[in-house]
């Protein structure tokens, strides 16, 4: 009976009838929230909801009632498509695929049209989304590969769930560059990332241009760039490599993802406030603000892929992922206040070597009356912290993951580093080799390794845009005003039609010219890791510099060993962090010093 209900329209209809019976007041009037939990007060609360809220509640109720049946059905369909992974070491969330695995995947896709989302009566494709929330990036990849890089998603009537999902480079160029004014982030995007609303990542039009101009000017300040390079170099030498030396000496396994998060948290806060939070240290202090950032991105991910009416209702009822968001916001605002207080103390001190130099990001914004509003200020600072910490920290984790499985690539990197390192070793045979930021700028193969990692594991795997007016995309698909467009960066890097038959192989050589002396040109609408068009990433050069410094200094001094038996999979978040972290051991390469 339950199987029949799950597979037909009976369950949605039954749930709908039950809800309608409970809402037996023909002309509901909005009232304030009830003070008791009696049946009457609950009925009044429901009667005060908007039609969209009722529909959303129906969706949540049905998803809960039929969760087991739907997830079993979707799991069976997903496993049928992923059967080729049975004898491989990793799923699509893992790194390297053999050629036989790729062929098996292609064959499996061609024989399994069931990959496409089921279009249920009333609820449409919403149940498929609910069942696949925990693996949405892989699910999008499978569906996009089966549907020709584009597909539509429709949710229950009244929820506004009209998604067009794409990874087509021609469409991306149209959306991000050719006709970008028709595809803004939109007001709903700002609502999704509410604590960052007003920051550069959530705004469009003239305010976005104003902030971009301001930030571009700040980040191009030679004094600030020099300080960021110095901070990055010193943090690697005095904190990261010191910790790594301790881990190697004691043969202690540790979570590389956590250390990269701590490192980048400090390196994000230092140029922003001119203050070092000190999260990366031997005593490993609590990192409440970093955990709060993770919460913000996890809840935002949920908001991105479900109807707005659903998450807004959950926020109103204080249930589900929405329940923990208020506490996270409070922690982040408290962190900003604490950093500003520490900055005030440091910059007002006399004779302690920290006399205010006027070279941090906040100095430029505090002098501008446009940014004096507290909410705007919080949005700016938190946006920068999340971008700098999450994007670079996550990328570094995936780089170490892939390199630990590819010792041949590590050897090539070390050969590229050798001319620089040999001079340092000759001068200081017993010292750690630290690579200065300017020493790694010309390292072509190391940059190819970074780009190859970002191709397969983009830290921000999903972009979201809104449609202002009706338009026809280069793929021939028509999109309508009010539609939401989801661009899957994760899928784009894994499409055979875009990157060739070896698209799932981790191969930095694909980025090199024939002679290997320079990088191939790849347009940004094909490689979207640093965005494209007018919203191109302003911090790209700084991010690349920091990644090169960390990777070069680590690989020259240590061997990184991936601990066996781990389940490497991404968490459900707007950032492609690993759900269970990355547990590694280090071995000191003392014989080379």
Automatic annotation (TrEMBL):
Swiss-Prot/TrEMBL keywords: Heme, Iron, Membrane, Metal-binding, Monooxygenase, Oxidoreductase, Transmembrane, Transmembrane helix
Which superkingdom heads the taxonomic lineage of this protein's source?
Eukaryota
Positions that bind heme:
537
Entry-linked InterPro entries: Cyt_P450 (IPR001128), Cyt_P450_CS (IPR017972), Cyt_P450_E_grp-I (IPR002401), Cyt_P450_sf (IPR036396)
- First and last residue of the signal peptide: none
A single GO molecular-function term is: heme binding
Q: Which Pfam families match?
A: p450
**Ranges in a coiled coil:** none
Tell me one GO biological process term.
Answer: lipid metabolic process
Q: Which cofactor does it need?
A: heme
Q: Which family does it belong to?
A: Belongs to the cytochrome P450 family.
Any idea what this protein is called? Cytochrome P450 86B1
Which species is this record about?
A: Triticum urartu
